[in-house]
């Protein structure tokens, strides 16, 4: 395929992604992630994934998309905004903004399927798979490689125009395309995310110890919460946005326009007392089809009880 045709195809993909509501789209060559391999191996060897044992699985596939999707030639990375119109009231138990509305896995997977169908209708047979944080794909590494942003000191992807409150998804396909190039790092000497983390989970710039992160404790950890973390959650009952909230680049965040991400009003208005007294029935109503279901009713109650320990 000649260079002009590759560029045309890439432009078509980006235009269609934009029409479907994606913030941006970048494309990189499907190949072994040479730079990430030693970093991932070191991170796992040092146990920074805590009890997230699934991170140890499919090491080769995590680093090489051609092992994950046979015949793949390109990784199409996409960003989808989730910054909410309204935030929770002050002085309440906090839910991470990404989980305010419908579970993003389903919303974005549907959009990716639609994008794939539109591309097949226009271009012809395309083999590939869609991924939304649900398989061994290093989302941030691919998004960085395809020029959608740089990895910040808090290890999240950052983009100049929009900050970091977005989901990352991929289509890994068998098309030869025109590839984008990475952007430069714009964190500079700023250490706001490192300074603000109450559990010191950002152990050095660009390295997060997942086993110390409030999101890990409130979502991933199924055991009792460690007593040494008492009084350090700053009222976060599901997930944590502290490192993103303090990031200067997030002053550029604009509200999403995805109705499915709009929360039940009780999530925004509930006081601490309301959360303490929440019943399973009300939990199921507020978080119907929400990512908060991952921690379950008992998990949310456990987290709130832990925050209240003095």
Summarize the structure.
The protein is α+β, with helices and mostly antiparallel strands.
Overview of this protein structure:
The protein contains 13 helices and 10 strands. It has 2 domains: 3-173, no CATH class; 192-253 and 263-308, no CATH class. Helix 1 (3-19) crosses helix 5 (104-123). The protein has 310 residues and is an alpha+beta fold. The model has no long low-confidence stretch (mean pLDDT 94). It has a 4-stranded antiparallel sheet with strand order 1-2-7-4, sandwiched between helices. A two-stranded parallel ribbon has the order 3-10. The active site is at 133 (proton donor). One of its GO terms (molecular function) is metal ion binding. Cob(II)alamin binds at residues 62, 133, 157, 168, 215, 240-241. Its EC number is 1.17.99.6. Keywords: 4Fe-4S, Cobalamin, Cobalt, Cytoplasm, Iron, Iron-sulfur, Metal-binding, Oxidoreductase, Queuosine biosynthesis, tRNA processing.
pLDDT < 50 stretches: none
Question: What would the average pLDDT be, to the nearest integer?
Answer: 94
Radius of gyration: 20 Å
* Main sheet: strand order: 1-2-7-4
- Describe the sheet with the most strands: 4 strands, antiparallel
Query: How helical, in percent, are the residues?
Result: 25-40%
* Number of separate helices: 13
Order of helices and strands: HEHHHEEHEHEEEHEEHEHHHHH
How far apart the termini lie comes to 66 Å
Helix-strand makeup class: alpha+beta
Number of strands: 10
Into how many domains do the coordinates divide? 2
Coarse shape? globular
Strand content: 5-15%
């Amino acid at each position: 395929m000649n260079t002009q045709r590759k560029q045309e195809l890439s432009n078509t993909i980006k235009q269609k992604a934009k029409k479907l509501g994606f913030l941006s789209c970048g494309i990189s060559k499907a190949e072994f992630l040479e730079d990430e391999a030693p970093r991932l191996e070191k991170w796992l060897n040092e146990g920074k994934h805590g009890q997230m044992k699934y991170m140890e699985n499919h090491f080769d596939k995590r680093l090489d998309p051609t092992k994950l999707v046979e015949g793949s030639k390109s990784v199409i990375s996409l960003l989808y905004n989730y910054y909410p119109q309204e935030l929770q009231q002050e002085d309440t138990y906090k839910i991470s903004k990404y989980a305010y509305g419908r579970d993003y896995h389903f919303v974005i997977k549907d959009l990716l399927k639609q994008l794939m169908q539109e591309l097949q209708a226009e271009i012809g047979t395309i083999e590939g798979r869609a991924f939304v944080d649900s398989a061994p794909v290093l989302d941030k590494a691919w998004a960085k490689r395809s020029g959608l942003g740089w990895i910040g000191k808090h290890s999240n992807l950052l983009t100049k125009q929009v900050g970091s409150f977005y989901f990352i998804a991929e289509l890994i396909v068998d098309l030869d395309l025109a590839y984008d190039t990475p952007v430069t790092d714009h964190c500079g000497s700023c250490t706001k995310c490192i300074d603000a983390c109450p559990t010191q989970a950002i152990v050095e710039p660009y390295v997060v110890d997942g086993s110390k992160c409030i999101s890990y404790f409130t979502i991933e950890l199924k055991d009792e919460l460690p007593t040494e973390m008492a009084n350090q959650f700053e009222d976060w009952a599901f997930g944590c946005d502290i490192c993103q909230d303090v990031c200067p680049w997030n002053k550029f965040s604009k509200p999403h326009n995805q109705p499915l991400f709009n929360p039940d009003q009780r999530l925004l208005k509930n006081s601490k007392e309301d959360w303490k007294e929440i019943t399973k029935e009300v939990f199921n109503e507020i978080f119907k089809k929400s990512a908060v279901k991952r921690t379950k009713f008992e998990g949310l109650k456990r987290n709130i009880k832990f925050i209240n320990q003095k």
